[in-house]
Amino acid sequence: MAIEEVQSHLKRKNKILFSRDSDVLDNLTTLIEMADRKVAVLWALDIATGIVLELDGKYPEIKLFEQSLNLAYLWMQGMVKMPAVKKAILKLHGLAKFFEQDPVTMPDGLKIRALAHGLSSIHSKKHAIGMPLYYLSALVQLDKEGYELPVRKEIKKYQETLEYYIRNEAKFNVHWAGFLENS
To answer: What angle do CA 51, 57, 63 make, to 5 degrees?
Structure first.
């Protein structure tokens, strides 16, 4: 059974095929909203790391993915200021736009946008949901007929990973930037 919302968005030729209000994302959205900001950051950076590994494997010549992730970790720890990370995130969005112009590379462009949103979650927890919206859209674009199982597996992975961070928050020994430590 196809996800009705996705089918509707595909017919309209939308790039983003999910929304914050997507029924299939209800549980994940609720978990993100109830999670402590620091938990959401750890979750987003964990998922972002997987995206970086995937993109690095396909485009090893593009160093921006790993550099951006490293900057985000440094920002999380208060070791760099926001302008440096913001510049990297904006470069990711620019690169995503380039990839999205070609139907063959559009899914990778969506994954790059997912990465940018994941890294932006340090600044605002509201960005965290953008990561799955773009990444799941990329999965659909890769297989418009057989996307449902991979999408549902990915959503389950997101939920299980976030639940892990929620359950184990006290166990993580992280040096937080002041703006996160007191949030």
So the answer is: 80
Q: From CA 86, how far away is CA 120, in angstroms rounded?
A: 8
Helix H segments across the chain? 4-11, 26-34, 37-58, 64-76, 82-100, 106-120, 130-142, 148-167, 178-181
Say how far apart CA 142 and CA 170 lie, in whole Å: 38
Rounded CA separation 38/40 (Å): 5
d(CA 14, CA 27): 24
Residue at 3: amino acid letter: I
Give the other-Cβ count within 10 Å of 96's Cβ. 21
pLDDT per position as a tens digit, 7-29 = 899 999 999 999 988 999 999 99
Burial degree of 182 (CB within 10 A; 0-12, 13-18, 19+): exposed
Question: pTM of the entire structure?
Answer: 0.94
Q: Give the orientation angle of helix 106-120 with respect to helix 130-142, to 10 degrees.
A: 170
* Orientation of helix 26-34 relative to helix 148-167, angle to 10°: 20
Q: Distance (Å, rounded) from C-alpha 30 to C-alpha 110?
A: 23
Instruction: Give residue-wise pLDDT tens across range 96-147.
Output: 999 999 999 999 999 999 999 999 998 888 899 999 999 999 999 999 999 9
